Amino acid sequence: GSASTHQPHKLAEKLTILNERGSGVLIRMNHIKKTCADPKQRPSILTDKGMESAVKYINKKFPNIDFRGNIAINFDFTKNYLDLIITYTSVIITLSRIDDKKALVGMFNCAHEMTNGCSDSSYPRLGQMFVEYEHPWKKLTEEFGPHTRSVTSALLSLKMVYPRRNLPAEQWRGAQLLSLLSAPAAMLDPACCDTMSCEYLSMEVMERWIIIGFMLCHSSLNSNQASLELWKMALRSSLYLTLTRDEMLNIHKVTEDLFDGFKGYSKRVADIKECREHVIVNCGAMHRERRQFLRGALKELFNVLEDEPGLLGPKALFVIMALSFSRDEVLWLVRHSENMPKIKTPEDYVDNQMAELLFYMQKLRGLMRKYNHVLQRYHVQYLAQFDALVLNDTIQNMYVCPEEESVLMSSFVSTLSGLSIKQVENKEEFDFRALRLDWLRLQAYTSVNKAPLPLKDYPDLAKVMNLIQFHTRMVDSVEEVLQETSDTVHILVSLFSSRLFFYPRVFEKMFNQSQDEMTMKRYLMSFPSVCSHFSQCGHPLCPEEVIMEKRSLRLCVTFLEQIAKQTSNIVLEICAEQCNLNEQLLPKHCAENISAARHRKQKKPVPKKGEVQKEKPGAESLRKDRTVATNVDKMHLTLTELCSSYSLCNDLIVFDHIVVPTEFLLSHLETRLSEIIVRMANYNQTTQEIARPSDLLAGIRVYTATLHSLSSYINVDVTRLVKNVLLQQTQPLDSRGGATITNIYTNWFLECLLRQASNSLIVHCPTMHCFINQTIDSEPSFRAEEFSDISELRALAELIGPYGLKFLSENLMWHITSQVSELKKLVIENMDILVQMRSHFDKPEEMANLKKRLTGGENVLKRMTIIGVILSFKSMAQDCLKDILQKHCPYLMGPIKCLRDFISPEADIKVTLSVFELASAAGLTCDIDPALVTAIRSMQTDNISVDEEYKLTCLLLVYIAVSLPALALDNNSSYSREHGGEYSSIRSHLLQTCLTVITALKRSSCLICRLHSLCVVPQTASSTLLQLGQNVERVEVKNRESIYLLLHMIVEESPFLSQDMLESCFPYVLLRNAYREVYRSFIVTLG
């Protein structure tokens, strides 16, 4: 009281500073309490067994303003005064809840004394305070006894404000609160009143003032009927109030416990019990109705202001009030849903439509930010052309005006009169903080006892200055107002975001309840958007609350993940439905229709009883009733609602992190789409079943086309998504380490198709350009031509691309190198014989004798058949890749072909292999397979010289050539007229393999030097094959003609051999007779 009398000039500054510091101390106390209560964060000194006795000892021995307030007139001064009382009380109560406070302070003082040789100077005073406030409420009531008159006066100034704010939704609806359309003629009139700042004052703040204020100054409840009525009204509104963060005050219990200790307060205790019952019975439904009203009111307000943003100028107060009322209702639900009493209607404390309310609060906030220039332009003109004139007239009509007060008021007028619309147009920065602080000073000067200029005698001055203060805030601090979370005006969602941050369970429960409602899905993005305001919850006095960033980001990511998961699920369900519809149109399902068309003239059979007629594709599009919603309709509606939520914002800033909601959706779609593509392949490793590449490609195309329709709902790059997914499928593993279709099809072709081909169960058919099944007794597990014809291999090339085929090729080459390795061992075993045969190929008798001494001839042919099968398949796949690339990028294929054709045999081998590697990757056929060169080069060993390797390769050619006649005994070696080739699949691939081995040795720098080694094949083979003609009646000549043709095919398909070379050692007449023999019984049927 003395301070306010003798030093009024510093009262405004003291209130401002003490409130700011008090809030920081309160937050810090709360942090200490949480830290000590958390076993993971509790200081180790309090849990150390060695310190236990010291802690017990310390705990055992631990020591021993008067003014006239009216909130409608001096709003800022009264508010700061009441806030300071509540902050002080909250600090004391929070301090009393820290169980380890004595141990912490005592240990600190001991450490200070050991370090500095003396106790901390503040320790005695703090220690005495701990002792005195052992029972905080009792001590606080004693402290505030002398201040009862001033506190009561300030609280009773709320009797006109608080009841008007605490009305049921029916009265709000009857008064058409917050509606701009209720009075169209007054739509452009400025929204103002005599108590501007009181219109958006927080209900919880007022209730906290009233409840705690009358607890501290309780004597007025028995002596003043107005105090009693105001106190009971506050008690009938809530069960809990917030001290700080998530520290709650059970107001009825605490008040009842306090008044039980006072004589003559039995009636007040009865009032408390009656008020508590009233809250339990009525308040849940009342606040539910309020939230329901606010949802509609905010939606209407936003739609009008979005359409006519110019109305933000005169109706800014409506937006502030809407945000304030909504904030109050959200906070009430947060406080009470976490501490819900046992009642018959628990649904009143659950709101599954909270997302909509948060959404429109965010939207209104966004409008205020977006059209800040509209607010500035309107209010600058209002201040200069109206407020300044009214203020000047008010000052002129004052009959008493001391000098200091006169100076302040004159500065107000001059500051406002100097404003101009050009300042807004020139984008000058406005700063009216000095003016608002001077107004707070003036309130302090005029509100103390015996003030020369009592403000209560000049209400018009207070009204115009409160109006001016609101208008200045709309000019220079809209962003500050929107983000404010401390002790000044709380007007927006960011205020309660701090409370929501410390109630993550409530927040997550609200989200889960909202996402289950179809109509709320479009508003779900408001939850992660609120997380972006959590960065404003901290305080400079408690920087240790670093957990905020991690928890905020985790909460935001959790919400975005769930929204993205829902959206991706519904998108992919629609894709799956479209894929099913498309699958009905595949050619394999038209057999029934074709059969019916062939028998149209026949009598249509009568359907059996109970038999359901199969619907034709397209029947789902026939509608008999437009009101009947199909499953696809419902899915599209859900997708529309979910995608609408992404329109709230493009990105969110959570502390230092920029979060893009659509990226979460793309990430989910990428993961799920990869899984679906692999699942669509239907690969069963046990039964070796797999989907045909063409069927998989058709399904992927449907998914891709349907995904592209997502762009009409939401702005996402679907093309990038599809490219990422399909590009990953061209690798053996995707980004998550899972198997891809490249891996799956590589394994299937190697382990299933080519393995059976190696065992002659499946053979290569040059005419049909595919593999076909041999005729056997048992039913084959699959038809080879359905997986290896041109259409299927082209589909495979389309699916896995050049990268996937390169992986497939590498695996094929590994199998070839293993066969080559075994062939080399056979050559080494027979090296001496093969050397002689190489030099005596023109001596039939010696060749016949030497051939009898060879071992493992059939093994050589078996392994070369395997190599031939693999290279035949590789060649087919390469041709299909070439066709696909020619279709998609002909401009790229042309230069590659020219470069390949430009290479001559005389070119350097390194250059040649580099060009061939490029051409091979594009699917072009090359004289030398670079993949095979790389594979064989990698299998070379250091203990064998290059000359030795070259020699082994040349002898391998001899070995193969002399073993060819043995194929005549094999039934699989017969020439098939229908299929146009040998079943054995050796043909030119044996030369390609051997030439690659020679190339890999790097024996010389050009290809010409390698070609001489290949001449031994027709020379040696002709010597042994001609001997078959001398054995006319022996079994060995069973497939003689087919083997002759095999030799001809080898020369014909090899780029390194010529017909002249063959005719020099093998008569052409034998080839002609062989063709005539194999085609003798073949009947050609012409259509």
Automatic annotation (TrEMBL):
Pfam family, one: Nckap1
One annotated GO biological process: cell projection assembly
Segments of this protein annotated with the region Disordered: 597-623
Organism, scientific name: Lates calcarifer
Basic residues bias spans: 597-607
Start-end of Basic and acidic residues biased regions: 608-623
Coiled coil: none
GO cellular component, one term: SCAR complex
Protein name: NCK associated protein 1 like
